[in-house]
Amino acid sequence: MFNPRIKFVLLAGVVAGLMSCGSDPNDTGTEFAPNMYHSVGYEPMSQTQGDTNTINPLGMNMRLPVKGTVSRKRYTGSDSLKQAFLAQEMIAKTIPNDSISYSEKSLYNPIAATPENIEAGKTQYERFCQHCHGEAGKGDGLVAKAYKGVPVYSSDALKTMNDGHIYHVITHGKGRMWPHGSQISSENRWKIVLYVHELQKQ
Questions:
Q1: Which of 113, 116, 146, 180 shows the greatest Cβ crowding within 10 Å of its Cβ?
Q2: 122 in helix, strand or coil?
Q3: May I ask the CATH architecture of the domain 79-200?
């Protein structure tokens, strides 16, 4: 026969074990000093009953965007222009990084070559490209003085580069040029393409 004291200890252990388990699959049970191992798993893309964040306004899980910011996907202009942006972006995402020739055949610039758009492209070029490619696209930027091989846009080999080729290189990079797809929006990359075409003529 078991000692009554041992029986009591075993029974107390079983009861404590059962009490520490809950029916809720998200319930971690009773723990001693969990040290924040289990964070609250809010669902940022949905809002369900009981799944609210007490810190954010109105219990929202997704934070409000910073005042003055614009979503990268929120294209401006007519509906047809928005659709053209989306179509070109979807095509571009299916093209492998090393398939420039496919981009040449598949991509076209959805932005019209108006003076305003070309000027906007110049502004973006000055911010992201001029330090290597130079003010006039002659490959004589400050960075190019240390790293040779920066191309000249008006050279025979490059003056015929089309929209898709230029857009692909801006997005994915080529040779020593690093990709800029994460730094420049799709719309601004197309505007840079417009301005590069102007530099090809010089």
A1: 180
A2: helix
A3: Orthogonal Bundle (1.10)
Region label for 149, one of left (φ > 0), alpha (ψ between -120 and 50) or beta (otherwise): left
Alpha-carbon gap, residue 69 to 76, rounded angstroms: 14
Residues 38-44: contacts with CB under 8 Å, at least 24 apart: none
Tell me how far apart the alpha carbons of residues 108 and 105 are, in angstroms, rounded to a whole number.
8
**80 φ, ψ (degrees, to nearest 5):** -65, -35
pLDDT digits (tens, 9 = 90+) for 132-164: 999 999 999 998 888 888 989 999 888 899 999
Whole-number Å distance between alpha carbons of 102 and 164? 8
Q: Angle CA(188)–CA(140)–CA(162) in degrees, nearest 5?
A: 45
pTM given for the model: 0.60
Residue with tokens 């928005």, as numbered in its chain: 82
Sequence ranges of the domains in the chain: 79-200
Token pair, residue 190, equals 């197309």
